[in-house]
Design goal:
By secondary structure, the chain is α/β, with parallel strands linked by helices. It has a single domain (29-43, 80-221), classed as P-loop containing nucleotide triphosphate hydrolases (Rossmann fold), CATH 3.40.50. Helix content is 34%, strand content 29%. It has seven helices and ten strands. It has a six-stranded mixed sheet with strand order 6-7-8-3-9-10, sandwiched between helices. A hairpin with a 4-residue loop joins strand 1 (2-12) and strand 2. It is globular and about 50 Å long. The chain starts with a strand and ends with a strand.
Length: 222
Amino acid sequence: MLELENITKIYDMGKVKVTALDNVSFRCEKGEMVSIMGPSGSGKSTMMNVLGCLDRPTSGSYRLEGRNVSSLKDNDLAVIRNNKLGFVFQSYNLLPKLSAVANVELPLIYNGGHNRRQHALEALESVGISNRAHHHPSEMSGGEQQRVAIARALINNPLIILADEPTGNLDTASSRTIISLLVEQSKKGITVIVVTHEEDIAAYTQRTIYLRDGKIVEERKR
């Protein structure tokens, strides 16, 4: 499904060059659920940016479905992000002035999809929150907002979901609900990659990759 091979990412800070990723290689298969862990500054965010086609590596290759996407043009990367990737963030990233269903519709607007409202309602139903479809984010709990964010991530039937600290702002019960929803997507054949600081969240995944100083220092299977 996806493969990073000898990925290095160096940020030029003027007089100083910072190596955020140092010769990182790993692969994920279709339907696999993988967690990425490590201390602050270990390279987790940079890896997610590379995986999400939000940043290009300095060297190495990133293959998605066998295609090297490392050096694609910005427009091509935008198409991949919208059609093949779903993003879930710690802070939900919902537009406050839009209802839940309108937030979920957004990727379809960019993609020119038809029957947007119906598809968005179906996505909300799939994560068990269709009863809040016409509420705004300010009227929903953190767990409810994150369900909306997952519905939005699913709306274009992505190959991969990238979840960056998806339970970081949630209580224990809501965290379990959200990670269970992501497990369900993995069982349906979507590859799910989760960045987390919490071992009990990582325990839901099939494999955990530990980063330190931009390098993979351990890989643990469950």
